[in-house]
Design brief:
With 264 residues, the protein is an alpha/beta fold. Helices cover 39% and strands 20% of the residues. It has 8 helices and 12 strands.
Length: 264
Protein backbone atom coordinates (compact mmCIF):
# COMPACT_ATOMS: atom_id res chain seq x y z
CA UNK A 1 0.00 0.00 0.00
CA UNK A 2 1.23 3.45 -0.87
CA UNK A 3 2.32 5.80 1.91
CA UNK A 4 1.28 8.85 -0.10
CA UNK A 5 -0.57 11.38 2.02
CA UNK A 6 -3.86 12.97 0.93
CA UNK A 7 -2.16 16.37 0.67
CA UNK A 8 0.41 14.96 -1.75
CA UNK A 9 -2.21 13.69 -4.17
CA UNK A 10 -5.00 15.41 -6.05
CA UNK A 11 -8.39 15.10 -4.38
CA UNK A 12 -10.44 12.34 -6.01
CA UNK A 13 -14.00 12.84 -7.16
CA UNK A 14 -16.11 11.18 -4.47
CA UNK A 15 -19.86 10.85 -4.90
CA UNK A 16 -21.87 10.55 -1.69
CA UNK A 17 -25.14 8.58 -1.88
CA UNK A 18 -27.46 7.86 1.04
CA UNK A 19 -29.77 4.86 0.67
CA UNK A 20 -33.23 5.62 2.00
CA UNK A 21 -36.77 4.45 1.36
CA UNK A 22 -38.54 7.04 -0.79
CA UNK A 23 -41.38 7.33 1.73
CA UNK A 24 -39.16 7.51 4.85
CA UNK A 25 -39.83 11.21 5.39
CA UNK A 26 -38.89 11.30 9.08
CA UNK A 27 -35.61 9.42 8.60
CA UNK A 28 -34.69 11.61 5.66
CA UNK A 29 -35.42 14.80 7.56
CA UNK A 30 -33.40 13.57 10.56
CA UNK A 31 -30.44 12.66 8.37
CA UNK A 32 -30.54 16.00 6.55
CA UNK A 33 -30.59 17.86 9.86
CA UNK A 34 -27.46 15.99 10.97
CA UNK A 35 -25.62 17.21 7.86
CA UNK A 36 -26.29 20.89 8.39
CA UNK A 37 -23.07 22.86 8.22
CA UNK A 38 -20.97 20.25 6.40
CA UNK A 39 -19.23 21.14 3.16
CA UNK A 40 -19.72 17.78 1.45
CA UNK A 41 -22.38 17.45 -1.25
CA UNK A 42 -24.60 14.38 -0.95
CA UNK A 43 -27.93 13.06 -2.19
CA UNK A 44 -30.50 10.41 -1.33
CA UNK A 45 -30.84 7.24 -3.38
CA UNK A 46 -34.34 5.80 -3.40
CA UNK A 47 -33.94 2.29 -2.00
CA UNK A 48 -35.03 -0.56 -4.26
CA UNK A 49 -38.09 -2.50 -3.17
CA UNK A 50 -37.75 -5.45 -5.55
CA UNK A 51 -35.10 -7.55 -7.28
CA UNK A 52 -32.71 -5.59 -9.51
CA UNK A 53 -33.28 -6.49 -13.16
CA UNK A 54 -29.76 -7.87 -13.72
CA UNK A 55 -29.52 -9.92 -10.52
CA UNK A 56 -30.09 -13.67 -10.51
CA UNK A 57 -32.02 -15.17 -7.59
CA UNK A 58 -32.57 -18.90 -7.16
CA UNK A 59 -34.78 -19.49 -4.10
CA UNK A 60 -33.87 -23.18 -3.88
CA UNK A 61 -30.14 -22.41 -3.90
CA UNK A 62 -30.57 -19.76 -1.21
CA UNK A 63 -32.51 -22.18 0.99
CA UNK A 64 -29.83 -24.86 0.60
CA UNK A 65 -26.96 -22.57 1.66
CA UNK A 66 -28.68 -20.03 3.89
CA UNK A 67 -31.51 -22.02 5.43
CA UNK A 68 -34.38 -19.87 4.20
CA UNK A 69 -35.39 -17.57 1.39
CA UNK A 70 -34.46 -13.93 1.65
CA UNK A 71 -37.07 -11.43 2.71
CA UNK A 72 -38.38 -8.68 0.45
CA UNK A 73 -36.42 -6.17 2.52
CA UNK A 74 -33.17 -8.13 2.15
CA UNK A 75 -33.65 -8.40 -1.61
CA UNK A 76 -34.36 -4.67 -1.82
CA UNK A 77 -31.29 -3.84 0.27
CA UNK A 78 -29.11 -6.09 -1.88
CA UNK A 79 -30.51 -4.53 -5.06
CA UNK A 80 -29.92 -0.99 -3.77
CA UNK A 81 -26.21 -1.49 -3.17
CA UNK A 82 -25.85 -3.37 -6.45
CA UNK A 83 -27.57 -0.53 -8.32
CA UNK A 84 -25.22 2.03 -6.75
CA UNK A 85 -22.15 0.09 -7.90
CA UNK A 86 -23.57 0.23 -11.41
CA UNK A 87 -24.25 3.93 -11.00
CA UNK A 88 -20.65 4.53 -9.92
CA UNK A 89 -19.34 2.66 -12.96
CA UNK A 90 -21.53 4.77 -15.26
CA UNK A 91 -20.44 8.01 -13.59
CA UNK A 92 -17.25 10.08 -13.79
CA UNK A 93 -16.56 9.65 -10.07
CA UNK A 94 -13.40 7.96 -8.81
CA UNK A 95 -15.15 6.50 -5.78
CA UNK A 96 -18.44 6.50 -3.90
CA UNK A 97 -19.21 6.93 -0.24
CA UNK A 98 -22.36 4.87 0.30
CA UNK A 99 -24.32 5.41 3.51
CA UNK A 100 -27.59 4.17 4.92
CA UNK A 101 -29.92 6.75 6.43
CA UNK A 102 -29.74 5.52 10.04
CA UNK A 103 -26.11 6.44 10.74
CA UNK A 104 -24.42 9.10 12.85
CA UNK A 105 -21.35 10.34 10.99
CA UNK A 106 -18.08 11.93 12.11
CA UNK A 107 -18.06 14.19 9.08
CA UNK A 108 -14.60 15.65 9.73
CA UNK A 109 -13.01 12.20 9.48
CA UNK A 110 -15.27 11.05 6.66
CA UNK A 111 -14.39 14.17 4.66
CA UNK A 112 -10.69 13.37 5.13
CA UNK A 113 -11.35 9.86 3.83
CA UNK A 114 -13.30 11.19 0.86
CA UNK A 115 -10.31 13.44 0.08
CA UNK A 116 -8.05 10.38 -0.01
CA UNK A 117 -7.58 8.60 -3.32
CA UNK A 118 -8.00 5.09 -1.93
CA UNK A 119 -7.31 3.42 -5.25
CA UNK A 120 -3.75 4.77 -5.40
CA UNK A 121 -3.20 3.20 -1.97
CA UNK A 122 -4.38 -0.18 -3.20
CA UNK A 123 -7.62 0.14 -1.24
CA UNK A 124 -10.76 -0.45 -3.26
CA UNK A 125 -13.26 -1.12 -0.46
CA UNK A 126 -13.15 0.55 2.94
CA UNK A 127 -16.01 -0.07 5.32
CA UNK A 128 -16.67 2.55 7.97
CA UNK A 129 -18.70 0.38 10.36
CA UNK A 130 -19.30 -3.30 11.08
CA UNK A 131 -21.49 -5.19 13.51
CA UNK A 132 -19.57 -8.24 14.76
CA UNK A 133 -15.99 -8.72 15.99
CA UNK A 134 -14.03 -11.16 13.82
CA UNK A 135 -10.43 -12.15 13.22
CA UNK A 136 -8.45 -9.10 12.19
CA UNK A 137 -5.01 -7.68 11.47
CA UNK A 138 -3.79 -4.11 11.79
CA UNK A 139 -2.40 -3.17 8.39
CA UNK A 140 -1.37 0.44 8.97
CA UNK A 141 -1.18 2.75 11.93
CA UNK A 142 -1.77 6.51 11.61
CA UNK A 143 -4.07 5.95 8.64
CA UNK A 144 -5.23 9.33 7.28
CA UNK A 145 -5.08 10.68 10.84
CA UNK A 146 -2.78 9.94 13.78
CA UNK A 147 -5.74 8.51 15.69
CA UNK A 148 -6.90 5.86 13.25
CA UNK A 149 -5.68 2.48 12.09
CA UNK A 150 -6.33 0.54 8.91
CA UNK A 151 -7.55 -2.96 9.79
CA UNK A 152 -8.27 -6.03 7.66
CA UNK A 153 -11.20 -8.21 8.73
CA UNK A 154 -11.53 -11.96 8.20
CA UNK A 155 -15.03 -13.36 8.64
CA UNK A 156 -18.69 -12.45 8.87
CA UNK A 157 -18.44 -8.92 10.27
CA UNK A 158 -21.77 -7.86 8.73
CA UNK A 159 -23.18 -4.42 8.07
CA UNK A 160 -23.50 -2.08 5.07
CA UNK A 161 -24.18 1.09 7.05
CA UNK A 162 -21.32 2.95 5.40
CA UNK A 163 -18.35 2.30 3.12
CA UNK A 164 -16.22 3.83 0.39
CA UNK A 165 -15.79 1.85 -2.81
CA UNK A 166 -13.62 2.73 -5.81
CA UNK A 167 -14.47 2.01 -9.42
CA UNK A 168 -12.27 -1.10 -9.31
CA UNK A 169 -13.94 -2.22 -6.09
CA UNK A 170 -17.36 -1.72 -7.67
CA UNK A 171 -16.31 -3.84 -10.65
CA UNK A 172 -15.21 -6.69 -8.40
CA UNK A 173 -18.31 -6.56 -6.20
CA UNK A 174 -20.63 -6.20 -9.17
CA UNK A 175 -19.26 -9.40 -10.67
CA UNK A 176 -19.00 -11.30 -7.38
CA UNK A 177 -22.53 -10.40 -6.25
CA UNK A 178 -24.41 -10.93 -9.50
CA UNK A 179 -25.97 -14.11 -8.14
CA UNK A 180 -28.01 -13.39 -5.04
CA UNK A 181 -27.20 -16.17 -2.54
CA UNK A 182 -27.38 -14.42 0.85
CA UNK A 183 -27.81 -10.92 2.32
CA UNK A 184 -25.61 -8.31 0.69
CA UNK A 185 -23.30 -7.71 3.66
CA UNK A 186 -22.57 -11.44 3.98
CA UNK A 187 -21.69 -11.61 0.30
CA UNK A 188 -19.47 -8.53 0.55
CA UNK A 189 -17.72 -10.04 3.58
CA UNK A 190 -16.58 -13.04 1.52
CA UNK A 191 -13.10 -11.75 0.69
CA UNK A 192 -11.93 -15.35 0.70
CA UNK A 193 -14.12 -15.87 -2.38
CA UNK A 194 -14.05 -12.63 -4.41
CA UNK A 195 -10.53 -11.53 -3.40
CA UNK A 196 -11.42 -7.96 -2.41
CA UNK A 197 -9.87 -7.37 1.04
CA UNK A 198 -12.38 -6.52 3.76
CA UNK A 199 -10.75 -3.36 5.05
CA UNK A 200 -12.02 -1.07 7.78
CA UNK A 201 -10.86 1.88 9.82
CA UNK A 202 -10.65 1.91 13.61
CA UNK A 203 -12.08 3.72 15.51
CA UNK A 204 -15.16 3.73 13.29
CA UNK A 205 -16.09 7.17 11.89
CA UNK A 206 -19.79 6.37 12.03
CA UNK A 207 -22.23 4.36 14.11
CA UNK A 208 -25.66 2.92 13.50
CA UNK A 209 -28.61 4.37 15.37
CA UNK A 210 -30.84 2.02 17.31
CA UNK A 211 -33.94 2.21 15.12
CA UNK A 212 -36.45 -0.41 13.93
CA UNK A 213 -34.97 -2.31 11.00
CA UNK A 214 -36.59 -1.64 7.64
CA UNK A 215 -35.20 -4.95 6.38
CA UNK A 216 -36.45 -7.22 9.17
CA UNK A 217 -34.80 -9.50 11.69
CA UNK A 218 -35.42 -12.89 10.05
CA UNK A 219 -31.72 -13.28 9.34
CA UNK A 220 -30.92 -13.53 13.05
CA UNK A 221 -33.17 -16.54 13.60
CA UNK A 222 -31.42 -19.85 14.22
CA UNK A 223 -30.67 -21.91 11.13
CA UNK A 224 -28.87 -24.75 12.90
CA UNK A 225 -29.78 -28.36 12.27
CA UNK A 226 -30.01 -27.96 8.50
CA UNK A 227 -27.45 -30.29 6.96
CA UNK A 228 -26.79 -28.20 3.86
CA UNK A 229 -26.48 -24.97 5.85
CA UNK A 230 -24.16 -26.55 8.42
CA UNK A 231 -21.95 -27.98 5.69
CA UNK A 232 -21.80 -24.59 3.93
CA UNK A 233 -20.87 -22.87 7.20
CA UNK A 234 -18.10 -25.39 7.93
CA UNK A 235 -16.67 -24.98 4.45
CA UNK A 236 -16.74 -21.19 4.71
CA UNK A 237 -15.17 -21.20 8.18
CA UNK A 238 -12.31 -23.39 6.97
CA UNK A 239 -11.64 -20.94 4.12
CA UNK A 240 -11.74 -17.97 6.51
CA UNK A 241 -9.33 -19.65 8.92
CA UNK A 242 -6.93 -20.65 6.11
CA UNK A 243 -6.92 -17.12 4.70
CA UNK A 244 -6.30 -15.57 8.12
CA UNK A 245 -3.45 -17.95 8.97
CA UNK A 246 -1.88 -17.39 5.55
CA UNK A 247 -1.94 -13.62 6.02
CA UNK A 248 -0.57 -13.92 9.56
CA UNK A 249 2.31 -16.01 8.28
CA UNK A 250 3.07 -13.52 5.50
CA UNK A 251 3.02 -10.67 8.01
CA UNK A 252 5.38 -12.54 10.35
CA UNK A 253 7.84 -13.24 7.52
CA UNK A 254 7.71 -9.61 6.36
CA UNK A 255 8.49 -8.39 9.89
CA UNK A 256 11.42 -10.80 10.18
CA UNK A 257 12.90 -9.59 6.89
CA UNK A 258 12.48 -5.96 7.90
CA UNK A 259 14.11 -6.56 11.29
CA UNK A 260 17.04 -8.32 9.65
CA UNK A 261 17.41 -5.48 7.16
CA UNK A 262 17.47 -2.83 9.86
CA UNK A 263 20.01 -4.82 11.90
CA UNK A 264 22.43 -5.22 8.99
Amino acid sequence: MSSETPAAASRPTTGIRVISMSDAAERREAFAQRTEGISASWSFFDACTSLHSTLRYDAAEVRSTYGRELSKGEIGCYSSHYALWEELLRSDADQYLILEDDVLVDWAMVDALCATDLGTRGLHYLRLFYKYPVRHMVRQRDFVSDRHQLVELFGWSKGTQGYIVTRRGAEILHEACARLQMPIDDQMDRSWVHGLPNMTIFPAPLIEQTLPSQIGDDRYASKSGMAGVNRFRRDEESKIRAMYLREKAKSFIDRRFRSRGSAS
